[in-house]
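User:
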Amino acid sequence: MMLPAIPNGMEPAADEESSEPLLLLQDQRSRSNTTSQVAIVGSDLCPIESLDYEIIENDFFKQDWRTMGTVSIFQYIFMKWTLCFLIGVIVSLLGFLNNLAIENIAGVKFVITSNMMLARKFVVAFIVFASSNLGLTFLSSLVTALIAPEAAGSGIPEVKAYLNGVDAPAIFSFRTLVVKIVGSILAVSSSLNVGKAGPMVHTGACVAAIMGQGGSKKSGLTCKWLQVLKNDRDRRDLVTCGSAAGIAAAFRAPVGGVLFALEEMASWWRSALLWRAFFTTAVVAIVLRALIDVCLRGECGLFGKGGLIMYDVTSANISYHLRDVPAVLLLAVIGGLLGSQISFSTLRIIPRYKFKGFYIVCDRKGIAYRILLACFISISTSCLLFGLPWIASCRLCPSDASEPCPTIGRSGNYKKFQCPPGYYNDLASLFFNTNDDAIKNLFSKGTDTEFHHSSMLIFFATCFFLSTFSYGIVAPTGLFVPVIVTGAAYGRFVGMCVGSNLNLNHGLFAVLGSASLLGGSMRMTVSLCVIILELTDNLLLLPLIMLVLLISKTVADAHFRFSMASRSHLVTLLRKKLFFKTPTPVGLDAFLQFSADDFTTKDLGHCDQIDDIELSEEEMEMFVDLHPFTNTSPYTVVETMSLAKALILFREVGLRHLLVIPKVSGSPYDAPSTLFFFLVSSKLQGLSNNGIRLPSAYIYNKVVSGMLDLDLAKKLK
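Assistant: Predicted structure:
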């Protein structure tokens, strides 16, 4: 059932006399319809709903707020800060366990494969490597496709949509959270060129949304104290804090997490939200620091050097001069082009997956195809990772190596692969590691002679290719870390070409290369700068990183450019069936039939649906009064306002809808349009009982179309 639409060219029936803004439940199918065919009776409703972040000042809100005393207000504030603390603790634990699981699963795989290689059983080693990768990818795509398709991808677009007022079903459900965690662990452990930072943002948002809903009424598990937070505005704040905590847990970058949520995720902030987000990420940083101490004691199993991503990669006395700047500028320009190409390729490839039946959330018939696609990419990745090191030449172990060469076991810079004793394979040292450890190797200082030019170029091309094709599979995958890896290889290659004449070492060029590709693909500056600084733990890099990010983003932008009540409230009204046979105002009876809790945000995934409501033919002819439930103070603008200024209001104020006041002209009774519309609105709102009685929809239609006759204008005045 849908609201009746009164087209511009429709005249009211003669017996329709009402000046009250009532929701007419009568079927309009017998009337002529010249409106868009998208909203016709009987059509399937889109499951996506917009959110009201504006405070709806209706009668229920005012009555509920007036009844709140000092204790209730203290409870409200206390619960928000407590939830922020709990979100920080839980997200940090999940981030640590995520890293721990990935490092150990991948570590076991690499150790077994390396042992086979040492025994010269190369075919068996490839079978073990490829089959383990295929099994992990298959499980990740299977649980995602069958249990929670909403968990596919990074989840950042979904979180951004929610924070900007668009709510899609089940994106923050407990089922999605579980699949996001498990699927991300399996996918990243399978040696696919995907990352865990994006899924961690979605994980943090899921944790925040689930905690803010106050339990589940369906399961009988509810918390009365949390009921005060069951509204779109407070849940948005918690989700913002959760997304910031996700980045902080992925990179151990608390300040970068706050800035990432500010710059990339939410479009509207206030000082109180900034404080809570900062508090949440601070909790994440403290908990992670305590957990890392446990790993430093050797109690985390096969935990690699890159675990939890902290790259102390530069010396304390970095020095660079004016003659180093041209090479950095060239690196930034090319990096911006490459980063924009990653975004462009991803946008081109993922729709092709969809066109072929892959990765369609609502289409269960394409599950087999989507899983097969993921498996095909896994096999292709395994072949490349295992086959390409064979074309790299063996290099003699350096005499002053800071670790054993060749490396035997989990991680290291000197993988033996097929080389004889005393030699190592530099390409295998990058491929046969997790992305975290590969970044650690590339960022390392004092390793200018460790890699060959051809090996670095092959590694860059492979990562660039795999990152664009692996991101769109039906699995929880991120693109942040793969771009860092690709950029590090690119920067290191540039450093190998020009580094002999400059003061910057190859590790520093790798850091700047990652910054350039991140700026070109992610189109961010401030948050990326702080995240990279927190990763490398060296403020001396700040000027160069700022320069690279500004240039790469500018280049990428240029290159890419030239290449008034909500549905849930209405459903609640229909479910309660407060209907009248005549268009009669409900008055105070509404406060006896409803409570403020009836209009709170429902539990995730359990909101009322219009299809669940059954109405008889008699009820379909009845009326519902919307007076007590509509927002009496919406944001309004005049129709002469430009679209650009209206967009600023939507984004910065966080609006769901904006009331446009029409301009009435061409009449000797022309008056300021705002006053005129106020008079008409008063008639529509039932604030005046004098004057003529016409259907409210007819009055509104005539005002909008500018066809209100002069006699009617006189009576309204």
